[in-house]
Amino acid sequence: MDDLDKLKNSWKKSTDNYPKFSAKEIYAMLHKRSSSIVKWILVISITEFTLWLVISFLLSDSSQMKRINSLHLNYITTPLEIINYLIILYFMFIFYTNYRRIKVTDNAKRLMQSILKTRKAVTTYIITVIVYNFISMMLLFVLFFMYDPNIIGAEQKFEANGNLGWFYVLYILLALLATGVILLLFWLFYKLIYGLLLKRLNRNYNELKKLDF
């Protein structure tokens, strides 16, 4: 049993022994916990931004990047990379704003509103990242289809054998499969990390609704 549960049980058992003080103690603990959770959401988003920078640096000389650069698609890949960073930076600012708001909140109602805003921001962030990556990957698969010599060569072989339709079907299926696997990994990561924090934040919200000052 954690400290919050002990306080709740003590509060429920108390009839005349300063119930108001006990309620305020529970609120203070919920406020502290909520502030800590939102801080962790901010820290994770900063870590994610840093991680993307490191991955981009490490992969800059990889065979895959050299292949992309050989197609002269920088006018597409560079803006996509910048947009990805801007999305993370924007939500980092939102998470920071939510953290500052929760940290200075001294009212249960405002704390509940801040928790709701944080939950909405995190959900919006996850959806935005997944949708953005889906669009980006589909665009890259189209560009590879149009400009990659290996894919064009494979297309010509299928066409020579009278199986051009099968080539299109296979390419689309492989593109969707690869995209689906990568997006699933993204979703599982966000579900594990942010989902756990949101679950705890939601618990705090429900506990706040029970308090009566």
Automatic annotation (TrEMBL):
Sorted UniProt keywords: Membrane, Transmembrane, Transmembrane helix
Residues passing through the membrane, by range: 37-59, 82-99, 120-146, 166-190
The protein, known as: Beta-carotene 15,15'-monooxygenase
